[in-house]
Amino acid sequence: MKRIKLLSVYNAFEYVMDHYAPNGLEELARRKDTYAMISIQDTHTGGFGFEFRPNKYCDAVLTLYFDDTVKETEGAVLFTEEMARRIIKFVKEEEGVETMAVHCYGGESRSRAVAAFIAFMHGKDNSLYFAKGNPNEHVYNTLMKVWEEQYPKEDL
Length: 156
Prior knowledge:
By secondary structure, the protein is α/β, with parallel strands linked by helices. The protein is 35% helix and 17% strand. The protein has a four-stranded parallel beta sheet with strand order 1-4-2-3, with helices on both faces.
């Protein structure tokens, strides 16, 4: 994976559409990089009304439904360790794509935490994700906890 792309839901839709071309005219697509998408959708609205699907350029999609909260909140779904395990597994399985795209509604909290974690996972500097925004601390800390349980330092 060469890059991590942090996106809002609107930017994610544009990113996907930049890869689109009618069947048989794929050479007309504006972008031709391969990517995998982690789509983080809200639960209180039942999602964003659409889901991304694999296609010629999109190798795989992981869609998760949880809300932008850092503690148990009535009516909201909190990010879980099981979701963290699914993200880690997905990223490891999709190592061959050129771009790992991550989006939530605004591209500022949940997806920023996931993108920062993916950068960490790949030994990249993730400080920019913290300097330029506010990653959801619960999401990031849960990912780190699960990572450390799966890959203790002495095993690396």
